[in-house]
Write a structure and sequence with these properties.
- This protein has 494 residues and is mainly alpha-helical.
- Helix 7 packs across helix 12, helix 12 packs antiparallel against helix 13 and helix 13 crosses helix 14.
- The longest helix is centred in the C-terminal third of the chain and has 27 residues.
- It folds into 4 domains: 49 residues; 95 residues, Orthogonal Bundle (DNA polymerase, domain 1), CATH 1.10.150; 153 residues, hpI Integrase, Chain A (Orthogonal Bundle), CATH 1.10.443; 63 residues.
- The N and C termini lie far apart (109 Å).
Length: 494
């Protein structure tokens, strides 16, 4: 016969410590190392400890077992996710240009102190309000929320928390509606007429006709072009050029960049003042947005932290940076597209001009170097996956006169000066891609074909992104139908 007041199986024990607090201990089984897995819940009275135990058991019955201890902070979770998860799953440029700055400059300073299990919807909503109050764009705030949500999803999958609070916040900012504003057809005609006078000018004709992204244009290689039959010429888009930030290769990054740290100068007796040589201009404040340069010194966005480990570009042993070849942003971006015959003819002439430059001397080229890269190229391999350079030093279609690659920033500056010479508005190089999509849609090309030609994720994306073009095409189609129908009716009445 069971003893009266005997504890039930799994109920746990309740006892009072010497300091007067009550403890409810629950046995959960055994860990992987064979040790007992127990949880201890505390209260100032026995009733509080029992209530904490009942709440814990209720959570377990719902399918979630809270982790032991206080748990990690939001900052610790974001740091782990950024360096050990996101860095291996997203492109280098995405990580350096978006994930890292948003995490380290916004999320961790503003939202990193609470424990992950204690983070609430109100905390995230207050973060959004503070970002809006400081004047950040909706796209920046949306990007921060996306990063935070991905990190919290990881914590949910690993049963560190029960739910992702980012999915339940109110007042989520909305991004502005996109509307492509590409050059008009007569403006593109002016550009095409002037391109033969520009070295490498055919690269912008390629962007207008094919619509690849700027990095895909600059990363185009001759093995990816099939110009044997100009009437059936094709282009395989499988690589693009990007610039990746340099990493320190030295043992002490902080000391390595000591000469480049941006620190606030003291108001008097600045130790940086030089007794002779180039004068030192003290920096005492940060530059606001839209600074006109009327103050002494250079414009500064932010001071360096006391433990700054940046300025890797100046490191003598720098590594893993600079211009590299990488695969496009998605599987859909890898594609083979036909190119019109006039463009194929221009590319053939460009190939002959490039061969003439190589023979003139001073040509260096850019590609895989066996002396610095230990990987042995495989047959028919175009780009070395280790050093991320073309296997052949003459593989790039668009290069500088010495055969080195054209950086995206140099391409932007040359494009801007080119438009200024022609007296055209300052369009972005990416606007030529929008022009290509708009042109094909207006000419009645099926939206699925347009999506495939430009590497869009789906035809639905193309419809949403260029809805204004579809509406204009539908209006023209309705007008054409009306003309045909009522003309036929008029003919039958005669």
């Amino acid at each position: 016969m069971p003893r009266k007041n005997r504890r039930q199986h799994g109920e746990g024990s309740i006892y009072q410590r010497r300091d007067g607090r009550w403890v409810a201990a629950i046995f959960l089984g055994y860990k992987a190392d064979g040790k007992a897995d127990r949880r201890y819940l505390y209260g100032d009275t026995a009733e509080e400890a029992v209530a904490a135990r009942d709440a814990f058991n209720e959570t377990r019955r719902a399918g979630f077992t809270p982790p032991a201890g206080k748990g990690e902070t939001v900052g610790e979770l974001l740091t782990h996710w950024l360096h050990n998860v996101a860095k291996r799953t997203v492109r280098d440029t995405t990580w350096h240009d978006a994930y890292r700055p948003k995490t380290e400059k916004h999320l961790i300073p503003r939202l990193g102190r609470p424990r992950v299990k204690d983070l609430s919807e109100e905390d995230v909503e207050a973060f959004v309000t503070s970002m809006q109050r400081d004047g950040y764009a909706p796209s920046t705030i949306i990007g921060c929320l996306m990063i935070l949500s991905q990190a919290l999803d990881l914590a949910v999958r690993r049963k560190q928390i029960q739910r992702n609070v980012c999915k339940y916040i109110e007042g989520r900012p909305k991004g502005s509606d996109f509307e492509a504003l590409p050059p008009e057809r007569d403006e593109v005609a002016v550009i095409l007429d002037a391109l033969p006078r520009r070295r490498n000018g055919v690269r912008w004709a390629t962007a207008a006709a094919v619509g690849q992204r700027r990095g895909e244009t600059l990363g185009l290689t001759w093995p990816m072009l099939d110009l044997t039959n100009l009437d059936k010429a094709t282009m395989r888009i499988a690589w693009e050029i990007v610039r990746v930030p340099w990493q320190h290769g030295c043992e002490d990054p902080h000391a390595c960049g000591a000469a480049h740290h941006l620190r606030r100068c003291p108001p008097t007796n600045c130790p940086k003042r030089r007794a002779s040589g180039r004068p030192h201009v003290c920096r005492t404040r940060l530059c606001p947005d839209g600074c006109d340069g009327s103050h002494p010194g250079r414009c500064i966005r932010a001071w360096c932290a006391p433990d700054c480990e940046g300025h890797a570009k100046a490191c003598k042993a720098r590594r893993d940076g600079g211009l590299v070849m990488t695969e496009p942003k998605s599987k859909k971006s890898k594609r083979t597209v036909p190119i019109p015959r006039p463009l194929a003819e221009l590319l053939v002439l460009h190939q002959l001009a490039q061969a003439t430059e190589r023979e003139a001397g001073g040509w260096v080229g850019w590609g895989h170097e066996p002396s610095s890269c230990s990987r042995r190229p495989r047959p028919r391999e175009v780009v070395c996956p280790k050093c991320r350079r073309p296997i052949a030093r003459d593989a790039l279609v668009f290069t500088k006169p010495d055969g080195m690659p054209v950086s995206p920033s140099d391409d932007w500056r040359e494009w801007s000066s080119f438009l200024a010479e022609l007296g055209l508005p300052p369009y972005r190089p990416h606007d030529l891609r929008h022009f290509s999509v708009t042109l094909q849609l207006e000419e009645g090309v099926d939206v699925g074909v347009v999506a495939d030609n430009h590497g869009h994720s789906s035809p639905d994306f193309t419809r949403r992104r260029y809805q204004h073009v579809a509406e204009r095409v539908q209006r023209e189609s309705a007008d054409q139908v009306g003309k045909v129908l009522w003309r036929s009716a008029g003919d039958s009445s005669d």
